[in-house]
Amino acid sequence: MPELYSQLWNLDLDGISQAAKNWHNLSAELESAHTQHHRQVTLPLKKAGWSGEAATSAFLFLNGVETRLEIGRVEAELISTVLSTVHQRMAKAKSDLRAVITEAEGYGYTVTGDGTVYPPPHTSRYEAEEGAGQLTAYRDRVESAIAAARQASDDGRSALTALHGDVMAQYRPHALNEASLDAQAALMYLGIDPPKPPKDPKSAAAWWKGLTAEQQRDYTLYYPQLIGNVDGLPSTVRDNANRLSLDEQLDDPELLTGHDYGVGTSAVIDPRYTAMMKLKDALDANDGAAPGKELYLLSVKGAGDGQVVIAQGNPDTATHTGVYVPGTSTTLSGVSGSLNRINLLQQAAEGAHPDGSVSTVFWLGYDAPELDQTVTTRTRAEAGAPDLQHFIAGTRAAQGPDHHHITVIGHSYGSTVVGTAANTGQLGADDIVAVGSPGMNGYAHDFGIPRDHVYVGKSDNDPIAHYLSGLSLGEDPASPKFGASQFQVAQGDHSSYFDRGSIGLENMGAIIAGKEPTLVHPAPVRDPMDPLHPMYPAVP
């Protein structure tokens, strides 16, 4: 103990503090280098359409460079966190040691150079016995301070040992995934538990605002999948976290992929990997988009058919937000087509001259049914409805106290999800739209908003809306009995509602923009389900 006492008493912590700052700065520089390389080297080559064997090899190399930069920024920041934590704990131990010595000496105790505490001279045996307890307490406090310093040192050494710096030497498969595991191991050695954000979106928003900038950055880097899926957090934060999470998922060794073995391999590529790569390519293709056209990755889960939520334009700041919920057979693999739809919806809304900016969201936060018996049951809708409610509540929380205008649009089975989420009056939307609907699992008066803010579009040539609506998934939303306003659409097939320049698309854009669409008929003045009135009142 004598040597440790002297070391702690004279310990200069400035070097540890400065090293932590240097590693933090290096992490920021590596992040900047990654961004510049991606935007100035890799993306221009991809957008130029370079292809062929040489291009494939080059892109593998360039992706490896970017992966190493991404690994470097995570591990550099982690080293900074380790050093900062050790510095904080060492500083407390040193402070505690000096405090007990100062206190003891103030009461007449003697402390030798090796840290041993001796009692003051006593005039009687009774006084000596009475002071024995205090002497023991002082000695215990000295030992506790030294033990805390030793533990901080040991934990810091274990945490740094958990990092494998060789991942920066050259790219190898799953290095980013390994870096993520390194981070979890290092934090475990430090006794740092994962954050526990509140489940309630408003509480989550307040929790995030209450964190320091350093905590926010560290949580985003070390727990990207957790932070990226917290409804109520800023879209910019979720986007940064989810893009890192996407890269880590793509590097998961559980996905046995051809890229593990180089070009020309015959290895089977996991369909989850293929789907997530399509998502990454779609996001990359949008990089550098004009203000208001940026894509924000608000959630991504690669399990099963994959789930994803993407916004075009920032929904936190937009005056008008349209949330598009797709239907049957929508998977992560078809993300490009869905992104095209929210782009068309945003253009249509902007063409309606809204008072303020517009964001449109592709919400595939549920497991869409396949073309089998699942499409005729409400099971998938009932499973997905709470998550849709939670997302809308999170959007409201991220927007703040001002009430922004939110429209939720369900297409095909997506309208069943929307109706199921709304039929308790808990969706939180200002307007609800159903197109090509096989049924909404309720009636307009169930949705918690005025019935003239529930809209339906139905093409007579749409086989889904024409033949399936009114059967197992609920009343036909276009029927007078349902009680909604019906707007004009082109008489096309099941996908025609989103055709560029079509009347249906223009009308959905108007609704998103807070304008009145061109109606076939408005909602009935009297609720058709009111027992005091005829079941099918005349439509005004």
From TrEMBL:
Domain named DUF1023 is located at 303-467
Name the source's superkingdom: Bacteria
Which Pfam families does the UniProt entry name for this protein? Answer: Abhydrolase_8
Name-wise, this protein is DUF1023 domain-containing protein
Q: What organism is recorded for this protein?
A: Actinacidiphila cocklensis
